[in-house]
Amino acid sequence: MKYPYLFLVLLLSIVVGCSTSDDGPIEEPDPTMYFPPIGSTWETTTPSSLQWDESQIDALKDFLIQTNSKSFMILVNGRIVMEEYFDGHTAQEPWEWNSAGKTLVSATTGIAQQNGLIDIDNKVSDYLGENWTNMDLEKENLITVRNLLTMTSGIDDTKQLVVKSNLTYVADAGSRWAYGNVFQKLMDVVAESSASDFETYFNANLKSKIGMDGFWNEGAIFTIFHSTTRSMARFGLLSLNNGVWDGEQIIDTSFFTECVTSSQNINPSYGYLWWLNGKTQYMVPSQQNVYQGSLVPNAPSDMVAAMGAKDQRIYVDPTKKMVVIRMGNASDPENPNFAVSGFDNALWEKINAVIN
């Protein structure tokens, strides 16, 4: 060959530029993205540097106060743009995630799969043993781990306390979407497959790796995660980056992509315990009605969200590289909803006035 050195350089550049893993091409890290170190240090940026309308910020804060918020944060590229606390709440105090914590369970399930402990396409009884429900064995064996992730187990959703006597048959797994607490059995699947308790596995494989604080507390109906607002924001930032934290793959990217993609055709606005915006129709907890249109019309069409009772929220906007956190009491105490509420649309109207 006339130019062997040049050929070698070109070959090496092709190999480096197309690095792959077992899951496909490795995405180059975003040089503009910031990941806060473990501790209290966290870089900030200003609304003016983002050309936001600062004259609308007070109206946003007033709305948050009027709707019983305890805390609110906006991150862009990982940096704090807004961080507000209300009603005596502080940055050091934990608050309940309620069903927004389902996304933590989804993530931990994915980690258990990437660690070779489970396969989400296997039936749940492979991990919990037969007769974990109060159903005929034939129907029980239709329920896979994926069905628990997608709310399509077919188990009665009117009984939210997850005890065997309440886990009764309504429909074949995969044929009906219904929002319920049976997702908690995923925690048992992780615990059984890892030979540890769920919280220990979660702490070692997720919480400690991204610098979260917080704890799981057994509530009246299901176990609820509590943390500071910044820890909720850390998980939002991990999600914004498709499971990667400062170059380390915490959640397999292909699994996280499945988490935030329509997981079934019955309710396309639901992934693996994540809510998805911008779809043509959606369903809500405690109903079998199908509503036409987008989940939160005022929010970005590609937004995904962790949603919990009393309006605990993580909103992830991939286009603007933005994470929004809201914690607090129910915006409407007379209607403390399980997840989706009119609060989301009203809040995004205020956010849009600031950021657009």
TrEMBL record:
<dbReference type="InterPro" id="IPR001466">
    <property type="entry name" value="Beta-lactam-related"/>
</dbReference>
<dbReference type="InterPro" id="IPR050789">
    <property type="entry name" value="Diverse_Enzym_Activities"/>
</dbReference>
<dbReference type="Pfam" id="PF00144">
    <property type="entry name" value="Beta-lactamase"/>
</dbReference>
<keyword id="KW-0378">Hydrolase</keyword>
<protein>
    <submittedName>
        <fullName>Class C beta-lactamase-related serine hydrolase</fullName>
    </submittedName>
</protein>
<feature type="domain" description="Beta-lactamase-related">
    <location>
        <begin position="71"/>
        <end position="334"/>
    </location>
</feature>
<feature type="signal peptide">
    <location>
        <begin position="1"/>
        <end position="21"/>
    </location>
</feature>
<dbReference type="InterPro" id="IPR012338">
    <property type="entry name" value="Beta-lactam/transpept-like"/>
</dbReference>
<dbReference type="GO" id="GO:0016787">
    <property type="term" value="F:hydrolase activity"/>
</dbReference>
<keyword id="KW-0732">Signal</keyword>
